[in-house]
Amino acid sequence: MIALTTLKVLAAGLAAVFFQKNRLVKSWAFVLFAAVAAILAYDFEHNTPFEASLWFVHWIKTPTLNLNLGLKTGMEYAPFILGGVAVLLFSLYYNIFYPLEKDRLRAGGLYVLIFVLLMFILSAGNIMQLFLAICLLDILIFVLLPELAAKRLFLSFNLVADVLLFILFAFVWGQENSLYFSALTKYARHSSYPLLAFSLWIGAVAVKCGLAFFHNSILELKNISFVRQNFVATVVILLVGPILLYKTHALFNLVPQGELVLKVLAAISLAWGLWGCLFSDFLKARILYFYMMLSALFAVLLVIDRANFLTMLVPLICVGLLISAAMILPLIGAANEPLISQTGGFIQRMKVSFVFSIAVALVEAVVLLSFMNSLNQWWIVAFLFCHFIAFSHFLGQVYFGDVLADERVWAIVKNPTMFYFIPLLFLGGGLSTVCCVEPIFYILVPMAVVFFAWQCPLRRLGVEKQVLIQEEKAPVLVLYKEIFLMPLKFVGRVLWITIDFLFVERVMVALLRRFVFVLIRTSMFLHKNMRVCGWFFLLFGLGYAAAVFFWQKGAF
Amino acid sequence: MPNIPFILVFILLPLCGIFFALCSQDNEKTKGRNVLSVAFLTVLVNIAFIIFAFLSVSSEYGKMQLQESYLWLKNPKIVLSFGVDSFSLLLMLGIHLALLIGIWGVRKDYLFQKSRMIFTLLFLSLVNGFLSALDIISFFIFFEAMLIPLFMLIGMFGEIKRQAGLFRFMIYNLCGVLLLFSAVMILYNHNHGALMLNQISDIKMGQVKEIVIWSAIFLAFLSRIPIWPFHSWVSVVSSGIKNPLVFIVANLMPLSGIYSFIRFWPQSMPNTIIFVVTALEIISVISMLFIALIGLINKDIQYKIFSFMTVYYIFFLLGSFLPTDQVLLNVGFSLFAFMIIFSTLEVLVSFQEEERTEKNLSAEGILCKMPRASAIFTFMVFAGLGLPLSAMFVNNFVLVSGLLVYNFNTAMVALAALIFVASAMVQELFMRRTKVEFSIDNEPTDISKLDACFMWLIAAVLLMSLSDPLWFMRG
Amino acid sequence: MSLNWFALFPEFFLVLTLVGSVFVRLFREKATPKTFYTLSKFGVAAAFIATLIFYNQSFWNDVYENSLHSSLFKIFIYLFAAVTMFLSAKYFLSKDYSSFRFYSFILLSLLCLTSALSAVDIRLTVVLLELGFLLNFYLIRSPGNDDETYPVSFNFFLYAFLWTIFMAFAVCYVVRIVGGGSFEDIAMYCKVHQITWQLYACGAIVLLGCLYKLGVAPFHFWTADVLGAAILPVGSYLMIVPVFAYYAAFVQLSVGPLAVHFDLLKPAFYAFSLISIFIGAIGANGEINLRRIMAYSRIFVLGIVLLLLSSITQISIFSSFIYLLVSMLALGGVFAACYALKNKGDYLRRLNELSGLAESKPFIAAAMLIFMVSLLGFPPLLGFLGMVFIVDNLVAYQDYVSIFAIMLGIVILAAAYLRVIKTFYFDVKRSNFDRADRGIYFMLLLILAVILVFVLSPKYLVNDVEMALRGLVS
Question: What is the residue extent of each domain of chain C?
């Protein structure tokens, strides 16, 4: 059944990608959304993702490799499937209305295709399928991204991650001669190069999860439209990364401090995300920093509270979508003003947006607090605290304070259309019914958010004006260029000059050429004058023959 | 299945194509279209025969089928034996597709089209003979013979600047060929008659003789591959060629070296020459690293493509050194996809370079105004990097795995080299896709829809090979 | 003693043709260049047929005997001579020169050379060989390129005459010591008696004289000058035809009367062969005249031939002959193609004049390419067949040094040929070429067809030659 669903969805996606329409684009985008929603609703009604089902096809049958490609559903997969569905429908919905989206139908089609790949990643029963789907997903995202800078950064990081995974899996297969996930457990126990393997794995996971030092590929998405940015960010760092971590978690046992390393990375990511959320001038960048923080939380929850993680996944993803939807409202309302420093005082014209934002903050708190337990409490608290500060500061900068937007922008600031609030209502309402906490929180949280937004302590301290970040350079790339690539290019040049040019060309080849030249010249000289050289050759020949005779006869 | 002498067909069909090409009318009016059609059709028909032959063979590596023998000389007795397995058929198919792409790439190049097609078809015929040779004499005949059309193609149509480089290249190859000839004749004489390739390792010789023979054989094969420190002689020629078809032909030559290694490599290595294997591995990795580094610093895209190809060739060569025949089919699958990828890349690059030269544009941003070319170029670069768009994806994985188990250090150096060339290609891709403003009347022209359709068809073949290049043999 | 006159029929036909030519020259007013060719071709054809029929008939025992192998060599001489004469007619027609001198001397030369092969008396052999060689002086002096040919012919005559004196002296001494001139007598004498240095010297002179006539180093010094300077018909004749005769004579003398001398001279022959290989290969690289390049190629080829002949066995003679044959076929092909290289009536020979030949004469250029590649021993051409025989033979004797020398020589020679190919194919056309006679194309096609047939089915060449050469070494 999963195969049929996937096939239908795939067909819808391919149709959207290849059959372009230049007129009634929004209508076609809506048709796509409706079709996909209908397919999923109908199929999940008859066969929910919680019911176990399996479909597979023989893929590779060679003497060295025997693999199948398959799709699965079941209790273990359902949260990820539902998470993917949420992201897909959210993105397809926004794709209809978001004003700055060009090429809606093609983008929508690509979202669907990426979702299909996500299903393959999730259903992977062997390492090869996982790896194949991840690589294909990277390619499709590359196609989806319209900006070259975003493509370049995304591809650079993810290609490196793919290479790291490639080498790691090659190690595993070489040693264990199996590509099933059970081989990872065995490999972690008996690895010949545990430190190297762990480094490869943690590097790949860090990139895929968008953790600190490896987040710039996601950060660069700030220059593209919100819908695409949001879709890519959620799919990659909230779904693919965690799935990868979930399926390969056995590799934590490669080194004793494996889990600690991830926790440290997650902590740094949280702090980095907070810093970015506070000080980035780009509104869309702040959304991405928020996702970075959320991804860090996901990573850490997978390590410390794996059993509950699946239960938390869908609500947390929905929280992520809600937050991003709330944060984008000012941008939509202000006709795509991307800089936070050009906002301020928007509450005068966007009260509804502000109220919804508060509601979203409340939902976030409720969801997180409801999933808090003894294992994850500190991390959830830390996350809540950091995001509370960041979100309230954001709201304070945008909705309160002096109006910093220029006149043209201020003239058109207003609440976005109601279509933008429907998902907020739908998701928020749904989450609220599922999760619940102490009633006091329902009052405390909104009040705290409003208070901190209104007061905006950081602005009062005068910190933000000095620190607003315009652009963040990827430290890994800087490291790569200065410490790795430049010396490498230098070495390459030196080698080329010394060996290719000096040794081979100037010494070896020149010597050979000289030698041949001397031989030819000698020959030409000897054959110049027949009358003279004839005597020389004649006498030489006769003399040699005579010498041979006497030598043979032992005269010498 | 009718009893068709497939090998004979593979070798003779291009020669028939030469005959028809010679007879075809080639003047101002036809502009080389007739001879191009003849060449194109010849290659297509041969491809059809190859696919037909696939249906008659089993997919195992090493099991030679469709064997044919011809008595050439009675005294000394020389019987020319031919046969194929799925590996050689795969390579044959890959070469045919690569040349088909190359022919497509030169279809608008009217000057001396007839000579070009004739030499190309001759090369194809000789390569088919080479890939199907089963005994050492026929192997040698075709190994040497393909140098002539190669030399003519490069000299006449390659437009290389330094002809001295071409001479050195040919002399270098000739030295290798003559070494092989000496070794082959000594083996032939030792065996008192014809010797099949898979029986060479069974011959018992004196220690010194064994070392000399095997060294000569391996040196001969290495002369086809741009191995350090002789790589510059090959690179000057290979990377300097402007014509896409000739570039493809020239860069198919290392394949003959690799194939030779694979066929000659003994099942069990005699103890006397174990050290030769180590030396070969060391030279291979040094060459890979060296050429990859130079590819990284070199700004010329032709050199980047050359270094990309060379590194991959040596990588496949290392794969063929692994102490198991099981991976050789994987090498074959990878090579099949690899040949198609680099041919398409080269055709696209030559198109861009032509536009650049004609309109005096820089390479930076040229693809931003060529969406069709850009899409295909990106696809091919990704496929060449080993992403899951072609058979290289899975099969490279198998090879890397094998290498890591066999020799960790070699594998890591090889991987480093592969990463360097991948970086170089990705850098080039992004440089060409950078958004640049061109004046309206001086914008680069995109490839035609027909060209794009053809190349997407090729891309589809690559995608189908992702699962299994021999997908048509299933069931 | 009865004389079998039938055995002399080939020679008779040649004489008849010669006499007929003289009469035509004297008494016919309008004698075109083709007239003498027509006469000569019939004469040669008749001689060829007569040789085939009377291949084992002897005229005079111990003086003049035909055998299977001597007839074989004669057949090839007639065949190549016929090709040369056919092509030469085109030359004389285009130049509108009288061809009487040329054809008559050719016939004389053929007469001397073929007769020398049948002679089994050393006196007769040497006289005929010397005569045949001295006649070349008049051939070289054929009008058409007097500035170059006159000094060359003078130098040629100087050394040829010197050798004639040496040979005459040597033969006289040998006959005086042995008491007879037949091969059998000399062979018997040398076997039975101790060979003195004087006898050795005389035998050596005779053998070295053959090498001189072949143009093997270090006696090669006249080859390039003569073949480079002489007019094309003379050059093409001297390049190919006499080689078979002197080769055959050398072999016959080495296995027969002078076998003992040959054994003693083996190291010298070995050294000379290696020197020839290198001089031929290196010399070709220093030349810009196409015919001189081919002349050096001939020295190279003959060096390899002599290398094999150093171990004078059945197999080595057979291998060397096959190699010689395929090489001469290729060289002949090159010279045949040279007949098509004309600009405003002048026959071109310098490489810079032949730039871009492939552009205007693709078939000629292609033929040249095939012949040169064949000379290098490239498969699948005929030269490879020769190379297989050579190397197989050397490997059997474990003579790896020689194999190395040959391979090195091929590499060096290849550099010269690549230069030529580059000139034809890669360089820009500088001059136009005149239309070539259809006969030249026909001849080239014929040579290529022969090469193709022998490549596909070498048995047609190899089996018969092997049979004919069997028994040469008893």
Answer: 279-474
